[in-house]
Amino acid sequence: MAKKEETDDVSLWERLERPAAAPRASLTPGRIAEVATGIADREGFAAVTMRKVATELGVAPMAAYRHVNGKDELWALMIDRVSGELAPVDEISGWRETLRAYALRTREMMLRHPWLAHMPAPLFALTPHRMAAAERQLASLDGLGLDVDTMMAAFRAVNAYVHGATQSEAALRQYMQDQGWQSADETRRGLAPQMSYLMETGRYPTYRRYTHGAARKDDATWQFETGLDCVLDGVAGMVERGHA
Amino acid sequence: MAKKEETDDVSLWERLERPAAAPRASLTPGRIAEVATGIADREGFAAVTMRKVATELGVAPMAAYRHVNGKDELWALMIDRVSGELAPVDEISGWRETLRAYALRTREMMLRHPWLAHMPAPLFALTPHRMAAAERQLASLDGLGLDVDTMMAAFRAVNAYVHGATQSEAALRQYMQDQGWQSADETRRGLAPQMSYLMETGRYPTYRRYTHGAARKDDATWQFETGLDCVLDGVAGMVERGHA
DNA sequence: CCGCTGGGTATACGACGTACACATCGACGC
DNA sequence: GCGTCGATGTGTACGTCGTATACCCAGCGG
Predict the structure, then answer these.
(1) Which residues on A lie below 8 Å from B135 (Cβ)?
(2) CB within 8 Å: A149 and B232
(3) Angle of CA points B36, B41, B42, to nearest 5°
């Protein structure tokens, strides 16, 4: 435990920021993350393979291991990279506008990179760009009379909602794409075999009423924003009670 | 496209319920799901392998494929199986108590089976037991004057929160277990190398204030319930406005 | 008694993650 | 200048995975 250093003792994020460590380095964590996310965007999560990343970099399969400890770290780099697409929200607007803007941007970002829905969840914390977004959201809740625990709870509530809602939305989209279904109607037709057996058991009357009578059934944006505003209303209640 | 029938044309869920299809059948989707979830519970998500499931069933590696179309379907069966642990909530209590009870039970169930956090999200819909839970939650929102779209949005908001929040909680727990960390303090010490680099950049002052000064930092149940009540408050607002 | 069908098996292929030993080359002390 | 050393990239190899395909055989309807 004293020899496999350099990718082991110094933090992944330190390595990521360290500028072109050695002169000879044509590979960097940044470049690796770049082509890996490119592959994921174009060909899906499952196509991101150590070997494919390497060939796309014009390099031997094992080369990337000098800069990245394994597939887990590669995933962490990918998550951090796309999290960098979340442009900061200007600080003038109040907490609600700030949280709302981050939520909308996060959703858009996750839909741009649907492979995020397949990521093992633990990696979703502690990357620099994610922490930066968290910091700005927390800061927007500061000074309202909430204690730090409650601030964090509010922040987490919004983010848990955004992740949960967008994960299933992104996953559905990708599933449609995998199956070659273009429209919502086409999807219903494709899902019908699975669905009709369940529905004809007669066990789900309320659900059935929704699938037959809903007007905004296919308006994912309306659904997301309605749920989001609902959560934000709840946070507003906390804020009011918090400094009462 | 006219010969690979029997696992292809009839729905997975129909196969699951069909009682002991043939006389000779010693294998069933139910038994397969049973040992697969057993493996996942004991040894983690990555240990669930077609071959391991087969040997645990005392059967050749390819045998399970007669009953299950591939790993995806196996995962769907596993999800449905543990979703069956969500005991129905009696219908007497109001919508809020019903949704709250399902949320708490869902969290507990997901923490009992932490491998759920690693599941590709698309499979999280459309399994019979999950639809049963959804049906009962929707029914509890029925008759309050909400239109079906809003009912569904409220239901989805709560569930998205529950999934998002519990996924990260379960993932953290499993990560701790993988690393052999027992307590929250031990975890902080283990995470310190990763964390200190980020914190010492000075970019996250509000976040730092939380990690240093929070009282409920390690009370996951408080955090979950606080966020949940927040979302439920938001739903309450929708309900009030909905029949106004 | 025969042949068909459906459950279980045997074999095999290609791809994956990654351990390990090796080659190469820039930079730096002398 | 020159040897050495650490960091960077390579080659080879192993074990494991999902699953296609061809097979075998028990039991049953005729």
Answers:
(1) 203-207
(2) no
(3) 100
For B27-55, write each residue's pLDDT tens digit: 999 999 999 999 999 999 999 999 999 99
CA B20 and chain centroid, separation: 28
- CB-closest option in B154, B161, B237 to A157: B161
One-character DSSP codes across A152-201: HHHHHHHHHHHHHHHHHHHHHHHHHHHHT--SHHHHHHHHHHHHHHHHHT
The per-residue pLDDT for B75 is 95
Q: How far apart are CA B23 and CA B9, in angstroms?
A: 21
Side chain identity at residue A58, one-letter code: G
List the CATH code of the domain at A88-242.
1.10.357.10
Rounded to the nearest angstrom, the minimum Cα separation between A137 and chain B is 9
Distance of alpha carbon B207 from alpha carbon A134, whole angstroms: 8
Q: Closest Cα to residue A41, out of A1, A81, A70, A71?
A: A81
pLDDT digits (tens, 9 = 90+) for A50-81: 999 999 999 999 999 999 999 999 999 999 99
Q: How far apart are CA A129 and CA A82, in angstroms?
A: 9
Which CATH architecture is the domain A12-82 placed in? Orthogonal Bundle (1.10)
Among B139, B157, B227, beta carbon nearest to A227 = B157
Backbone angles phi, psi at B125, to 5 degrees: -115, 165
The CATH class for the domain spanning B89-242 reads mainly alpha
Kindly give the parts of chain B with pLDDT less than 70.
1-9, 19-25, 121-124, 244
